[in-house]
Automatic annotation (TrEMBL):
Every Glutamate/phenylalanine/leucine/valine/L-tryptophan dehydrogenase C-terminal domain range: 174-405
Listed InterPro entries: Aminoacid_DH-like_N_sf (IPR046346), Glu/Leu/Phe/Val/Trp_DH (IPR006095), Glu/Leu/Phe/Val/Trp_DH_C (IPR006096), Glu/Leu/Phe/Val/Trp_DH_dimer (IPR006097), Glu/Leu/Phe/Val_DH_AS (IPR033524), Glu_DH (IPR014362), NAD(P)-bd_dom_sf (IPR036291), NAD_bind_Glu_DH (IPR033922)
Gene Ontology biological-process entries: L-glutamate catabolic process
GO molecular function annotations of the record: glutamate dehydrogenase (NAD+) activity; nucleotide binding
Site feature Important for catalysis, where: 137
Protein family: Belongs to the Glu/Leu/Phe/Val dehydrogenases family.
PROSITE patterns: GLFV_DEHYDROGENASE (PS00074)
UniProt: substrate binding residues: 61, 85, 341
Name of the featured protein: Glutamate dehydrogenase
Residues the entry annotates as binding NAD(+): 181, 212
Length: 408
């Protein structure tokens, strides 16, 4: 998907054929074996990856995913999208991504810590505050980032908070980072609603994936008056056309570790949830959810891509024939996370920390600019919002490579 998107944009930008691989292929891709002593005394070997897409504009940046379906190809695609996302939002980074093929829900806290520390140990020659700075993604959280920071710091002999972002605030994390991706999604949805003339009060939203991104987006939108009518997780979904009580839902999820079984809602499958009528549809879980098979049948006005890569190129072709749907593409829609990660990194390097108001103000200003530039190109050149966002990101990296002399 990432390569197909790149090739279309490269044609539009007239990037010479013989130089396209320079932009497309990752600079480095690392596969590691991670032996972990399990609680029952056995040893299990997990496979982990870290892909750094380009280092032309600064260190590489991107999350680490713990999920059973992680593959090297997926991580490479996610690293490429990180590059275009950072360039679109003007951050001084190349893209990276990491992943470990495991099911974090089935590991004890001790097993998870040993796995994280051993994975970090394997990455140590390749990461660093000026080289590659990991962050959370699906299946990882602040605690995992704290273990990464601790493992790295023990190795080099002093405390290095700038090695990861998305850490607990008490260890040099930034105020607002935990909520930043979901808040950014909600900010851009409200910009899209303004643009389309949809009043927030009474609008409805359906969210696939009620994790960090999905749950914060839900709360932020509900504060604007939007009714959240359906949400889901890996176990299934729930639906209430009158709107879900999010306070009660969050208490239920904290206790039961799933949205499934929440009272005052009917159950719905993840596939059915995507087809529910709503004003705003937010995929906030895995890639390839809106496909050639279901794209013609989704019933929203705004498709806000909280997840990375939720829409396949086949679906994009179908959606291009549906002017009734406004897409906020992933590299724009979920960029709030990496933007506040950038703020966290800057604060760590300076050992000087900002208030939450300052973080949010700077976040919304960057989102506003990226939304404005993408929307302008979309209108001016008659290209989709995704194409416009990718073009802006790819063009900036391409220009930087040319200015540096193409081979850095
Ligand atoms: N955490 C962050 O700061 C950022 C995350 N993202 C993207 O947002 C998406 C979600 O990430 P997080 O919220 O951080 O992860 P998370 O691990 O906090 O939550 C993921 C949610 O998706 C659910 N899920 C997993 N498989 C599913 C499936 N097959 N169908 C439906 N739901 C499923 C999980 O049960 C969980 O509720 C991912 O695509 C990630 O790459 C993008 C930018 C930043
Ligand atoms: O915060 C970061 O550095 C990266 C977050 C991430 O993985 C993403 O934007 O997909």
């Amino acid at each position: 998907m990432a390569c197909q998107q790149f090739d279309l944009v490269a044609d539009f930008l007239d990037i010479p054929d013989n130089l396209r691989d320079r932009l497309k292929l990752p600079r480095r891709a690392l596969t590691v074996s991670i032996p972990v002593r399990m609680d029952d005394g056995s040893t299990q070997v997990f496979t982990g990856y870290r892909v750094q897409h380009h280092l032309t504009l600064g260190p590489t940046k991107g999350g680490i995913r713990f999920h059973p379906d992680v593959t090297l190809g997926e991580v490479a695609a996610l690293s490429m999208w990180m590059s275009w996302k950072c360039a679109l939002t003007g951050l001084p980074y190349g893209g990276a991504k990491g992943g470990v093929c495991c099911d974090p829900g089935k590991l004890s806290v001790g097993e998870l810590e040993r796995l994280t520390r051993r994975y970090t140990q394997e990455l140590i020659p390749f990461i660093g505050p000026q080289l590659d700075v990991p962050a959370p993604d699906m299946g990882t959280n602040e605690q995992v980032m704290a273990w990464i920071m601790d493992t790295y710091s023990l190795q080099v002999g002093h405390c290095v908070p700038g090695i990861v972002t998305g850490k607990p605030v008490g260890l040099g994390g930034s105020l607002g980072r935990r909520e930043s991706t979901g808040r950014g999604v909600a900010y851009l949805v409200s910009r899209a609603m303004d643009t389309l003339g949809i009043p927030a009060d009474g609008a409805t939203a359906v969210i696939q994936g009620y994790g960090n991104v999905g749950s914060v987006a839900a709360i932020s939108l509900a504060k604007q008056g939007v009714k959240i009518t359906a949400v889901s997780d890996a176990f299934g979904g729930i639906h209430n056309p009158q709107g879900l009580d999010l306070m009660a839902l969050n208490e239920y999820v904290a206790k039961n570790k799933t949205v499934v079984g929440f009272p005052e809602a009917t159950s719905v499958s993840n596939a059915e949830l995507l087809l529910l009528p709503c004003d705003i549809l937010i995929p906030a879980a895995l890639e390839r959810q809106i496909t050639g098979e279901n794209a013609a049948r989704i019933q929203c006005r705004i498709l806000a891509e909280g997840a990375n890569g939720p829409t396949t190129p086949e679906a994009d072709v179908i959606l291009s024939q549906r002017p009734d749907i406004f897409i906020i593409p992933d590299i724009l829609c979920n960029s709030g996370g990496v933007i506040v990660s950038y703020f966290e990194w800057v604060q760590d390097l300076q050992s000087f920390f900002w208030g939450e108001g300052e973080v949010l103000d700077k976040l919304f200003r960057i989102l506003e600019q990226a939304f404005g530039q993408t929307f302008q190109l979309h209108k001016k050149r008659g290209v989709s919002m995704r194409f416009a966002a990718l073009s802006l990101g790819i063009k900036r990296v391409w220009e930087a490579k040319q200015t540096r002399g193409l081979y850095p």
